[in-house]
TrEMBL record:
Organism the protein comes from: Streptomyces alfalfae
Signal peptide range: none
Record keywords: Membrane, Transmembrane, Transmembrane helix
Keyword check for Membrane: yes
Identification of the protein by name: ABC transporter permease
Transmembrane annotation, as ranges: 325-350, 371-392, 398-418, 438-457, 469-489, 524-547, 762-787, 821-843, 863-885
Length: 906
């Protein structure tokens, strides 16, 4: 007990280290699932900003009293069916799937408004329309007989000169056979982040056109019935569902098992919703159901959530690999700190243990006594670590993993004690020790090289849980780096010592000579610093690369300041976008997928992506396009010549002729030259090539050579919009965000894509994991470094004391300590930074950051030079502080307390 009380500070430090390591082992899986759950919830939220997660639709005919009850209000009918499909949601989602809104969108009708002239009105019934508090004048539309009541926004009121109570006639527009009086009954505020405004921006503000203004208005369910009865058309009602999983529910869906469970849930839900809606499952086509007194079809379901989950799962698998490297580096630093602490305990008790051995105790008995001494600290660390893991992860910790870590933590102290006291340990020759060291270093190097090759060859696919190989490779690489540094850095240090011998001062000679001599003994301190710096640099490299890669991928997906995908299917919309405010230039990019044959031997050339772009317009847009530059350099930036399509090819020889058949007519492609490598990464081609396989050949032509093709021949056509001051809100008012399954064109804005890239939850999870692991590793490394310096402090103190007897001053003693530690710090900084920067290349396809960012190629590595410099400077400041403290203690120490007659170990 007296011995335990005397060494209580070391026992407390050991308990803290064990607690940290047990918390990592017991709570690592839970923390990883929690990060994944947060990222998954953010992904679902971001996807559902643009459109509902699940859309249930039914088509219904005009009201027929014989079909159902004519007395029930149509709005109540829609609400009742919305509740039915919500109640059919799976119980395993824990109420995370809720009915968000009910919508009916009518074809446009024309209204004659005195102050504004002819107006095309887009009428919408929305259950998520503003409540009474959101109206600045009047009230919401209601159902009254055959009246059509409308509500408009404040901007629409001001732009069209409307007022509450104003009446005007509605006539034929896209909705035919309409002649009814409409009355404005309310004016609402269209502000905030309500999704209705994003999906139906015409409700917010109208647009001016040549013939008529375009505006939106809210309508009551009874008004929908009146207009439908007059027009005699079929309409569609959408019940929009929103998935907002809770914390534990989202965490459960992370991983391979969770992905399969989610897909099963999404497969079972549509049939359940159909049964709840109608009960006539399997009757394809026809109006076999009723919606109040309207004959209706079965419920149809469209959702993008399963595809979102598949995409997230692929990215999360890669994120888990990247995070596991930070986890492994933290564990390596923690166990190294534990070994250093155990060495300190062994060094402190070595004299007493040798005395016990001299009195007849065996080395194993003394080691068992030391294990018994450390048992309370290990047990306390196990309990504290499990409690910490449960508090951080908010889920029960893995007690089995924590117990395994605790048992592993209890091993170093008795093993090191036994190694220090084993029979004959002090009598063995240095030659045999050097031979064992060489063998050990060779084994470490072989294991590191073998681990890298095995990981590159095997990859990480199929590893649903923690991967021991992924966890072991960073630690092995750190140990191998330390082995090389310990062997290499003494050479330049000895050379510097010999060079300093020509000077007049003795401090550099003594300090550098001792630094070179003690290099093998500094292996643990070097390992701690190298692994910590390598993990920090690798984490900073990954985070910076992901952020920059996401920005580059956003530019690739958009292609310009904005782009309209599907311009070939909706040329009228493309024309309106080209005239929108802020649009300076427009360029059309088109893609045609072909499978040509060689005109020489008739062999297949391979599936190719034939992309046409107006090189002149793209060059004039000032985008610095590599595609426009390549076409101009090859003389292809004009109209076609003859019947051949002249292209630049990613594969093929200049002058080669290719042929393919389109609509029964043979087309010829002539390869004029090779395609420069940077063209494949040109963002201008991204909108049409985003879904094209990377293995397909790329054939680039000027649009003039593709004039013989009809617009319907192209698989994808994008209109690139250039402008320094694009009005994104106006563009969105023309092209709302599309719902799942919609066939309309898609508008992409660079500002929106970059904002979403900056908010990517998966990238944030990777950055948070690396930041947390790096911060904790730095704390453990500081602890290990302080303990290691304290172990070697007596030796440095004796040397300084010897020199003080020869007249060495206080400042010179401080310089001695600093120079003696400076080679270690330099070696650690160089080795850690080089290893951190080399990890992506060493691991190769295992760390595929393209899965996070998208885009045409693997993102370029982005090294944060300031961060790396700050890490190196921090290590230097730490060592300088340690030297200052040690020098101050050395000045107060009496020489008689340090120097002992007969000491020869220095």
């Amino acid at each position: 007990m007296r011995e335990w009380a005397r060494d209580a500070p070391l026992a407390v430090g050991l308990a803290l280290l064990v607690a940290v390591l047990v918390a990592i082992g017991a709570g690592g899986g839970g923390a990883l699932d929690r990060l994944g759950g947060e990222a998954l919830r953010e992904r679902f939220e971001r996807v559902q900003r643009a459109a509902p997660g699940i859309v249930h639709s039914a088509r219904f005919d005009p009201e027929d009293p014989r079909a159902g009850s004519a007395d029930e209000d149509f709005g109540d009918v829609l609400g009742r069916y919305g509740t039915a499909v919500e109640n059919a949601s799976p119980k395993s989602l824990d109420g995370g799937l809720v009915h968000d809104s009910t919508r009916i969108v009518l074809p446009t009708v024309r209204g004659g408004i005195a102050a504004a002239g002819t107006v095309d009105l887009s009428l919408v019934y929305a259950s998520d329309a503003p409540r009474p508090a959101g109206y600045v004048a009047g009230r919401a539309p209601r159902g009254r007989g055959n009246a059509v009541e409308l509500a408009v926004s404040t901007r629409t009121r001001d732009a069209l000169g409307l007022r509450v109570g104003q009446r005007f006639r509605l006539g034929d527009g896209a909705l035919k056979n309409v002649d009814v009086e409409a009355r404005v009954v309310g004016v609402f505020r269209a502000d905030g982040e309500r999704r209705l405004w994003k999906e139906r921006p015409l409700l917010v503000r109208p647009l001016r056109a040549k013939d008529a203004a375009n505006a939106g208005a809210l309508i009551a369910p009874r008004g929908v019935e009146v207009l439908q009865r007059q027009a005699g058309v079929e309409l569609t009602v959408d019940w929009n569902m929103r998935l907002t999983p809770g914390g534990e529910t989202a965490d459960r869906f992370v991983g391979e098992e969770g992905r399969r469970e989610f897909q099963r849930i999404m497969a079972r839900y549509p049939p359940s919703a159909r049964r709840a809606f109608c009960g006539a499952e399997g009757a394809y086509g026809g109006k076999v159901c009723v919606l109040g007194n309207h004959p209706a079809t079965e419920l149809e379901t469209a959702t993008a959530l399963p595809d979102t989950m598949e995409e997230f799962s692929r990215r999360w698998d890669q994120a888990r690999v990247v995070i596991s490297f930070a986890w492994a580096s933290l564990l390596a630093v923690g166990f190294t700190a534990l070994v250093v602490t155990s060495l300190s305990v062994v060094r402190r008790a070595l004299a007493g243990d040798r005395l016990r051995q001299a009195r007849g105790a065996s080395a194993g008995g003394v080691a068992a006594r030391r294990a018994l001494w450390s048992a309370p600290a290990v047990l306390a660390g196990f309990g504290g670590g499990c409690a910490l893991a449960g508090a951080v992860t908010a889920v029960p910790p893995s007690y089995q993993g924590g117990l395994a870590v605790a048992l592993l933590c209890s091993a170093p102290l008795p093993l090191l004690t036994w190694a220090a006291l084993r029979d004959g340990a002090l009598l063995r020759g240095r030659a045999r020790s050097a031979g064992r060291r060489l063998v050990g270093e060779a084994v470490v190097l072989l294991l590191a090289v073998g681990g890298v090759f095995a990981l590159r060859a095997r990859g990480t696919e199929g590893s649903a849980g923690p991967d021991p190989l992924v966890a072991a490779v960073p630690a092995l690489l750190g140990v191998a780096t330390v082995v090389l540094l310990v062997r290499c850095y003494p050479w330049p240090v000895r050379a510097a010592a010999r060079w300093s011998a020509a000077g007049r001062g003795v401090v550099p000679l003594v300090a550098l000579s001792r630094a070179a001599k003690e290099a093998p003994a500094r292996g643990l301190a070097l390992l701690v610093l190298v692994v910590t710096l390598a993990g920090a640099v690798f984490g900073g490299l990954v985070s910076g690369t992901l952020l920059e890669g996401r920005r580059a991928a956003a530019a690739w997906q958009v292609g310009a300041d904005a782009s309209f995908l599907g311009a070939g299917r909706d040329p009228a919309m493309a024309e309106r976008l080209a005239r929108a405010r802020g649009v300076r230039e427009t360029v059309a990019v088109r893609q045609l997928r072909v499978d040509p044959l060689s005109g020489t031997d008739g062999g297949r050339y391979g599936v190719s992506s034939l992309v046409g772009v107006d090189a002149g317009a793209l060059r004039d847009a000032g985008a610095g396009s590599a595609a426009a530059r390549a076409l101009a350099d090859a003389g292809l930036d004009g109209g076609g010549e003859g019947g051949d399509i002249r292209v630049l090819a990613s594969d093929g020889r200049a002058g080669e002729l290719l042929t393919f058949t389109r609509h029964g007519k043979e087309q010829r492609i002539r390869i004029v030259g090779a395609l420069p490598d940077d063209v494949a990464r040109d963002p201008a081609l991204g909108p049409v090539r985003r879904a094209t396989g990377a293995r397909q050949h790329l054939l680039l032509a000027d649009s003039g050579d593709l004039e013989g093709f009809a617009a319907s021949d192209f698989e994808e056509t994008a209109l690139l919009l250039f402008g320094d001051r694009l009005d994104t809100a106006e563009l969105r008012s023309l092209v709302p965000r599309a719902a799942p399954g919609a066939a309309t064109g898609e508008l992409r804005a660079l500002a929106e894509e970059r904002a979403e890239a900056a908010e990517d939850g998966l990238v944030a999870a990777v950055a948070a994991a690396h930041t947390g692991c790096t911060a904790l590793a730095v704390v453990l490394a500081l602890l290990a470094l302080v303990i290691d310096l304290s172990l070697s402090a007596p030796s440095r103190g004796r040397v300084a004391s010897y020199l003080r007897t020869l007249g060495l001053g206080g400042r010179a003693a401080s310089a001695l300590h600093l120079l003696q530690l400076l080679p270690l710090v330099c070696a650690a900084v160089v080795g850690g930074v080089v290893l951190g920067l080399a990890l992506p290349s060493l691991l190769g396809p295992v760390v595929d950051l393209r899965e996070f960012t998208g885009g045409p190629v693997v993102p370029e590595r982005h090294v944060d030079v300031f961060f790396v410099a700050a890490l190196g400077a921090g290590i230097c400041v730490l060592v300088a502080a340690a030297v200052a403290v040690e020098s101050r203690i050395g000045r107060r120490r009496r020489l008689g307390a340090v120097l002992r007659l007969g000491r020869s170990d220095d």
